[in-house]
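A note from the maintainers: we've had questions about how concatenated examples are separated. There is no special marker in the raw files; a new sequence line simply starts the next protein. For clarity in this README we add a label.
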Amino acid sequence: MPSTNARDISIDMIKGLGCLCIILAHLPIFTLTLPQNLIIQLAGPGTVFFFSTAGITAAIQVRRYPAKSLLLYFGVLSILGSCWNILVHGDIKAFASVEIFQIITLGSALICWLERNAPCPQKTLLLLSCIFGGFKYLSQAIFPDFDGGGWLLVANDYIPYHDPDSLGKRSFPGFPIFPWISVFPLGLFCYRATKSQNAIGMILMVTTSVVSTYMGSNPIEKWDTSIAFLAHCYTYIFLSFWILNGGKTETNRIGNLFAWTGKNSLTFFFFHPLALLGGLIVYNFSNLYVAWIFAAVIAYFVTKGAIKLKPWKIFSSAWSWLILGIILFSMPIMDTLIDTPLTGGISRLMAFIIGMVLCINVPKLAELTKKAVS
């Protein structure tokens, strides 16, 4: 098991890779050549880099801080992280599904609970990953109409965008608990596993992805999480820890760039839409490859500028966070009540601003939650 005394930059490097995947996958271009489409499909599972490392970070934190303070912190972060839900959906539907911040905080809370007294056995972590991942497909086979309100499983009314019935309209049902919660214990397992164990897992997952695709599983179906796609995600986790092997404290310039980005991934995530906007503008004058490079560079400099902003003193008070939460939740409700062409845009703009405020002042939130249970 890698030491937790020094900062393990392998975790940051993997998160940095996830940040690059975000740029590649999120730039809104739909007229693609075959190589460009392949790159986007390869970047599509990039969110698992955040999920798997979040579980590892939670396991490290629970050795340093009381589990109760961490659970409180994750709970508040889950609620305020709904600003991303509003950016995606823009209306009251923002609270009808588990999005990226909800699943990250739920998965982190799960790992905190598992590790609260001592490191969780490797067999238990692997077994839980199999159970949580397999529940989705078992439930589909036995109870095909059950979706748990879109929180446990993907909503029943979801139609994949590649299905003719979708009429070309993309739908984003979020990251339901099953199977995505399985990534967190799997990430921690891989972090503590030997290089040979990760190699075996990687080979098994590649085989599963290929065989299931041959048998009809759609390898690009992210949102309903086909077997082929989930195996693809698991492959990335095994592969990333097979390459980095955990416990890394030194690297080269490129590695340092990824590690720095991963260390500031929360800020990167909230500010990267600005970079995507810049990339979209460049695309109109150039091509997608140049747009990707430009967006990545802009994301780097925007993040670098944002982390220089110091937390605001006002957020040392719990009341400030409460008021911020009330403003956040009122946005999609007002949009539903007033229902004008402008309110949806205003909701998204306010959610974006609140997201930036959150990532700048999240150290204050961590301090408050620690004091609340001390």
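[label: protein 2]
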Amino acid sequence: MPKSLLIFLLLAFVTCRKAPDTIPLPTKICVTTSHHNFPIPNATVYVKFNADSFPGYEKPASYYDATFKTGAGARGCIESVPEGTHWLVAFGYDSLHYPHDVFGSIKLEVSLAGRPVRDTMLYVSEEH
């Protein structure tokens, strides 16, 4: 086989491989939902990436870029978060206090250079 044909085939193989859709970032946001110092398990947390202002509590789920749930221990995480300032909006249920439906929000900044992993409390309330 001629050397030029071998080089051509090698280049064709290398350039025809499918590139990955995304490269996972070493970033993560974890929250623990709490109301009156009690954990709020199974809360739904919506994330709006790179948001300049608070999105409010009335937006439909489709408005947000990502969602995750807190588990039985009231803690949940989302990984490979883009750099920037993000709003998290949580909705949960507090069986100990009335009214039972609770909600809250927090603005967090994620930066590869400064704060790639954020782990914090997300306080929820029955009123805002």
